[in-house]
């Protein structure tokens, strides 16, 4: 995986946790 993809995935995951 590219570093950009990993960072974007982690960012989306953290946003989901914040919403929850």
Brief overview:
The protein has 20 residues and is mainly alpha-helical. It is 85% helix and 0% strand. It is built from one helix and no strands.
Characterization of the model:
The chain has 20 residues and is mainly α. The protein contains 1 helix and no strands. It has one helix spanning 3-19. The N and C termini lie far apart (27 Å).
How is the topology of this model organized?
Elements: H1 3-19
Task: Quickly give the structural class.
Answer: mainly alpha
Number of helices: 1
- Tell me which oligomeric state these chains represent: single chain
Helix content: over 70%
- Anisotropy-based shape: rod-shaped
Query: What is the helix/strand order?
Result: H
> What is the first-to-last residue Cα distance?
27 Å
Radius of gyration: 9 Å
Enumerate the spans where pLDDT stays under 50 for 5 or more consecutive residues: none
Mean pLDDT: 92
Count the strands? 0
How can the largest sheet be summarized?
Answer: none
Percent of residues in beta strands?
under 5%
